[in-house]
Every structure is written in structure tokens, then in C-alpha cells.
Amino acid sequence: MRKVIRLLDQFVAGILMLAMTLILLTVVWQVISRYVLADPASVTEELSRFLLIWIGLLGAAFAYRQKVHLGFNLIVEKQPPERRKYILTLVELLVIIFCASTLLFGGAQLVSLTLELEQISAALGVRMGYVYIVLPLSGALIICYGLINIHNLWLADEEEAW
Amino acid sequence: GTDSESKVTTLRIGHTLDTQHSVHKAMEYFGARVAELSGGTIEVKIYPGSQLGNEREMIELLQIGSLSMTKVSASPLEGFVPAMKIFSIPYIFRDNAHFWTVLNSHIGKTLLQEVEPFRLKGLAYYDAGSRSFYSNNKPIHSPADLAGMKIRVLNSPTAVRTVRELGGAATPVSWGELYTALQQGVVDGAENNPPSYYLSRHYEIARYYSLDEHTSVPDIMLMSLRTWDNLSAQQQAWVSEAMQDSVLFQRQAWQQSTAESLAKVKADGVEVIYPDKTLFVEAVKPFHESLRDTEVGALISEIKAL
Amino acid sequence: MDYTAIALIVTFFVLLLLNVPISFSIGIATLVAMLLSIDFTPAVTTIAQRMAGGLDSFALLAIPFFVLSGMIMGRGGIAKRLINCALALIGSLPGGLALVNVVSCMLFGAISGSAVATTSAIGSFMLPEMKKQGYDENFSAAVTAAASTTGMLIPPSNILIVYAIASGGVSIAALFMAGYLPGVMVGLALMVVCFIHAKRKGYATTARLPLKVVLQQVGAALPSLFLIILVIGGIVGGIFTATEAGAIAVVYSLILAVGVYREVTPKQLPDILLKSGETTAIVMLLIGASTAMSWMLSYANIPQNISEFMLDISDNPIVILLLINLLLIVVGAFLDMTPAVLIFTPIFLPVAAELGMSPLQFGIMIVLNLSIGLCSPPVGAVLFITCAIAKTRLDKIIKPLLPLYAAMFVVLMLVTYVAWFSEALPALFGV
Ligand code: NA
Ligand code: NA
């Protein structure tokens, strides 16, 4: 199981790094093509916006795995360990419910709607469904990471943590 | 949700313009008319200024069913309904009268109906005038003047192609960054209709406005098909009637705001140029030729014949 | 206020206290409020669409770029050179090291655009050094936390970009220009406090360096400082837009850190890309969730209601602006800057506009105000970082923070009631 999770982590990190590299190259190319070559690229603006959507949502899942999303932990920190475990589990469950309903289900609705109705992006001409697919993808990943966190809270000591 | 106590149906309309715009005023007029016709059982709430999203996103909200109505330009509709590309092609209408003849003909009506498979109900066309070039440093009298100029265009292949055919370097810049981009010289010019040129205050920077009127892209009033189907036949009739009234109101308000905008920019010292349009029409002929054997090409011939 | 607003606010605060991450607290509260008036499937689909739509903005692209260049500069030996430069210039004044701390934070904040990056980069150099010279570590930590916020106003600044989005399109170039004067004013005000504090405590001063050494240190810092000229010059000169400037800053800092200083190796780049992707995503998820929330707020007409309510209290601009400021200071103590800007801009900007304040001035005001919040307990990333580096506790640095707050508050009042401070530079440079 740990191996599978490690692979998943590497996969997410890989896409995130790739998207960061691409977004930089895209915008640098936009400046060069307009200012140096005087032949402005017509798709860079849209491509970089779509990459940002992917970075933001996929990166959100990555950041959830790293537990770096901003929160307010002053009260929970002061609770006795046993009670804290229950609160932290509740938090994970709330995040999972939100991701399941909104990102996974709502996002999948949006993807199927835009794919079914064949909505095409203005400049690149790609299907908007492919852009939106990062919504359910990120939702599914955060749900996985939430379950892993719950597992780590209850079933594992330090060494067995996933 | 439904309100069982008062049985008032609320139509929520989102749009991207400010409250001074003729479109907003026409929506208010629509709201008043529909309330009058329905005896107050249909109310309209308007959300201006992109509060609920941009045009493309609001079309999606109609499809999702969380918004009832919106106004969009025909160009973001291209991504949903490919036939709408026709309006982005330069010089397919002879003049404003021809433009409205086409919109009111079976061609216009068919195009409006073509949105229905996409869970949308096309209610009416609003006037959005014609788009023309404006520039910073040199006036545009003919396509030759556009050579080498970086012109901001809408994010669509047809718009990019139009500017290229006319000789300019088509540069996509987001609307929000355009004022500064013009000011700092990231682009040399842009194109839009007179009210937008005036209301966006781009005329403060771009001091030449060349009325070549290359494209006439109408605005379209859309309703969510889900909302439409939930209305009774009587309610649908009220909505249609109020909408037709608002169209007449908007066309007049548009003409007035176009005239006012041109007068105001002239008073501010902008040089408004009335170029020889035949030079521009000539320049896009190869573009029209290249479309001849396509569906769009057939439609162009039909429009030209009207 | 109607039940939608109450449901939204109550859910949000309960989740926040439970330590649900802020972005998810916003998302869940929005979902709860939306389900009161919209059916489940359209409600969740709309939230998903707004979360993606909130990120679908070209102006936001500057954020990953400035985060990336800030990270490259932080690891690339830039902080050290800036500190040496400040030390050579003002180190021999009373309270010299504290003044150097403030100036270094201003310079590093000016090029990195992030308060957190500034605190960690400057604090880890300056705090041990100040301790060695006999400075009280709580005072040193407080100064670092307060000074690191000047980079929020001095461009480039990610928070000003976030504001530009939230305000519905104020020019980023104009905001960048507008931030200079207030940012420098905050820095100077903090330096006055340091100066008085050092005089009173009789802290030792360092020896004045020979001119040749001073020139050497300034020269060594010049390539780093050139980034400021490159970014602002490129925007004003029409070579690139404010958004594209971020990408150019990345390229320049890469050349400097990898090619010239050689303090970052190409092998470290994947990790830098990943870390900056992560930081970007934290901000982006906040923006996405806040976009969904502000959709809900608009849908329920809440901003208009609050705005009408506030204008009913008084029609005196001085009173209302003071009220807005005090409310924002309380908000800023609990909420991080990005969500605070995203949530409160659409609510208070119409009120300020009604009173005749320009969106430009309002932006500088809200960012300066929330800068105070950024370094006030209980919530504030820069506070946690400085406390960790200085090995002190949050409650111990509150007392030395108080005079620094007072200095910042004075500048806040000047910015609130005198438009000139925000509007003179943009007008001068015609942006
Ligand atoms: Na900065
Ligand atoms: Na705080």
C-alpha cells in the first residue's frame, strides 16, 4: 500500500513540476513572440490560464498531502490528545464530504456537461471538459489523502504511517 | 427553489457590463414590462458587472441551471454553437439595415434556435453595433496603415485571422490589462464599438478612431432551457412579448449611446476617421474565398443574397 | 441580514475554530448557504465551476511567477548581499542593526513580493546577529515581523495582484506604483520606533566602515536590486505587462542565482519548482473557494445590503472609513491576508467608492491595514516564523510590537485620509 501511495505522490508532484515549467515557458514565449519576433502568439494567453487552473487544483491536492493549507489551530492544539484525535478525524471527514460533493461530483457534472455539449475553448480549440477534468481529479486525490490521514491518526504509529 | 406562498417567479439575469450601458437599461425595461404583463407574478433581478462570471461562464451557469438569463456576445457562443462563427467574419453585412434584415430573416431565427440542443433558449438579438480600429500613434486610413501594428484582438481564431488578413499583428491581451497595455505601448491599438471605446476610456490613450466597421457581432439574450421549460405557456408568452419590447428599446438606446460616444470622444479631441471601406472589403476577399466550400461559406452567400 | 448570510458566517467560523483549512471552511460554508436556495446538483456544479473560473484569469499568473522568483532569490544568496549593503550604509547609526533589519526587509520584500519569504530570509540572518550585539530577542522578532510586511506594498506584490482581481480590474501597474510611497512610509515609521528604542536602551553601534568597503557592498547588491528596475522599468516602458513581468523576474533571478552567484544548482530546480507550485496552489485554492463564496454573496445580494447598512450608520466619510479600518484590523488578526482581501474587497469597495475613494487608494488602504493584521496574533504566518527563528513565544513579542503597530497605524490613517500618498506616483508615471 505504501508503495502505491508513494507512486501516487510522485505522479502528482511530477505533473505539478511539469505544469510550472510549461507555464513559465508559455509566458516567456508570449513576450518573445510579441516583442522580439513581432509575430504575437495567439494561444499563449489561453494556454497559460488553463495551466494555472491545473496548477491551482492539482497543487491543492499536493498541498493537502503536505498538510500546508492555512488553518487556525490554536484551540484544537490545546485539547487533550484523545479528544484532538476525534476533532482531527471530524475535520478530515468534513473535507472529504466537501470534496466528494463539490469537486468530485460537481466537477464530474461539469466535465460531462461540457463534453456532452462539445464546448470548445476560444483560442486553442480544446474541449473545455479536458480543462475541467482537473476538478474531479483533484477531488479524488484529496479524498484519498484524507482517508490516508484518518488511517494515520487511528491505525498507525509513526513507522507505519502511509 | 419555488416560493409557494407568494408564487412569484424570479428570473435572475447576469451580464458583464456596467449599469450605464444600454443593455442594462434594456434589461431593466424588460423587467418592468414582464412584471406589468404578469401582474407582478414574474420578477427580474439583474446582476451587472460580471458579478456572477464572464460571458462564457454564465452560458455554463444557464446550462447548469443556477442562473436563468444572460446577455452574451455572439462570439463566446462560438465555443458552444459553431454556426455563430458567421458573425465574426468581416464585412458580411452591407450596412446596419442589411444586418437587421438578416437577423430578422429565417437565417437569424434559425441561428437563434440552434442554441436549443445546448440547453439554451435564444430569446432575442440586441444591437452591439460594429467594431472598428483605434490606435495610439498613427491614424488608420487603409489596410496598408495596419502593417506591423500590434492590434489587440478577441481570443478567437476568426478574430485573429481578420486582423492578419488586414495586415496587422493580432495580439491577444486580456480586457483587464488592455488600458495599461495601450498606455505603455505593449499594443499599438485595439478594436471595438463606439460605446465600448468610450466607456472603457481607451480613447484617453488611443487618439485615432477609424470607423472601418469590419465586424458586426450582435448581442444575444439567452435563457436557460430548464428555466424556459418550467414556465407556463402564458408565462413564456409574457417573457417573449416583454423581450420583443426590450429589443426595440435597446436598439434605440444603442443608436443614441453610439452617437453620444462619438460626440464625446470628438469633443475630447480624438481624430475620428471615416476611411474608404472598399479597401478593407477588398483585403478580406481571400478570407471569404477560402470559406467558399464550407458550411459557413454557404451561409455567407445566403446572407449576401438577402 | 438574512438567513443565508447567517448560515454562511456561522458555518465558516465553526469550521475555522475546528481547524478546518481556511479554503475548505470557505468552500463548505458556501455549499451550506447555497443549498438553502439552489438544488443540490446545480449548487455543487456551480461551486465547482466558480472554483475553476476563479483561477481562469491572466492577471493571476503573476503569483506563481513572483513566488518562484522569490524562492530562487531566497536560496540564491540575494538576502545576504542586501543585508551587507544595508549594514554598510546605516549600520553605524544608533540602533543600527534594527535599522538594517528594517531596510533589508524592505529591499528583499521589494523584490520577492512575499512577507513569508522575507521573514525567513532576513530573519534567519539578522535575528542571531542582533542577539549577539545584545538586542532583546523579543524586540528583534517584533521588528522583523512588522518590517517584512512592507514588501506587501512595495512592488512587486502578490497581494496587490489578488486585490486587482477582487476589485474587478484595477490596473496592476497603477497599484504597483501606488504602493511605493506608503510602503516606504511604513518602513521609515518603523525605523523611527527602532531608533527611539535603541537610544533609550543604549544599544551599541557598529563601527563606521571605510568608503571603499561601503561602495563594494553596495556594488555587490546592485545586481539583485536591478530586478526592481527591470520589473518596473519593463512595465512602464511597454516591453511587457505587469503579469508578464513575473515571468521575466523568474528568468532574471535564475540567471543571477544559477549563472552568476552559483548558489543554486540546476539540480535544486525541480524542488524549487515543486515548492513554489505548492505555495501557489495554497493561494489558488483560497482564490477559487473565495470566488465561489463571492458568487453566493452576490446571488443573495449581501454586499449591497451591508453597504446600505453601513451608509445608514453615518454619512460622514471620516467615521465610515475609520469603522471599516477598525473592522479590518480585527478581521486581519484572525484571517490571513489573501482570504481577507478576497472576502472584504467586494463588500467594502462599493462603500468606499460611494464616499468618493478611488479603487486604487482603497487597495493600498486595505493591504496596509491587513499588513498590521499579518503581524498581529493570534493568526499570522510571519509571527510564527519570527518566533521560531528567535526562539521566543508569541505572547512575549506582543509588548514590543505595540509601538510598531502604533507607527503603522499612523501611516494607515495618512493613507486613508490623504489620497495623494497613493495617487501621486501613478499619476506622475502615467499608469
Ligand atoms: Na514586494
Ligand atoms: Na493576524
Summarize the structure.
By secondary structure, chain A is mainly alpha-helical. Chain A has one domain (2-154). Chain A has helices at 2-36, 44-66, 74-77, 81-116, 128-132, 134-154.
| Mean pLDDT rating of chain A | 91
Kindly estimate the percentage of residues of chain B that lie in beta strands according to DSSP.
Answer: 15-25%
**Biggest β-sheet: strands ordered side by side in the sheet of chain B:** 2-1-3-10-4
Mean pLDDT of chain B: 91
Strand tally of chain A? 0
Q: What portion of residues of chain A belong to β-strands?
A: under 5%
How would you describe this protein?
The complex is a heterotrimer of chains A (162), B (306) and C (431). Chain A is mainly alpha-helical and 162 residues long. The N and C termini of chain A lie close together (8 Å). In chain A, helix 1 (2-36) packs antiparallel against helix 2 (44-66), helix 2 (44-66) runs parallel beside helix 6 and helix 4 runs antiparallel to helix 6. Chain A contains six helices and no strands. Chain A has one domain (2-154). Chain B is α/β, with parallel strands linked by helices and 306 residues long. Chain B is 45% helix and 19% strand. Chain B contains 13 helices and eleven strands. Chain B has a five-stranded mixed beta sheet with strand order 2-1-3-10-4, with helices on both faces. Chain B starts with 8 loop residues before the first strand and ends with a helix. The model of chain B is unreliable at 1-5 (pLDDT under 50). With 431 residues, chain C is mostly helical. Chain C has 21 helices and no strands. In chain C, helix 6 packs antiparallel against helix 7 (115-132) and helix 16 packs parallel to helix 18 (359-374). The complex binds sodium ion (NA) (2 copies). Residues 109-110, 113, 151, 154-157 of chain C line the site of one sodium ion (NA). Residues 109-110, 113, 151, 154-157 of chain C line the site of one sodium ion.
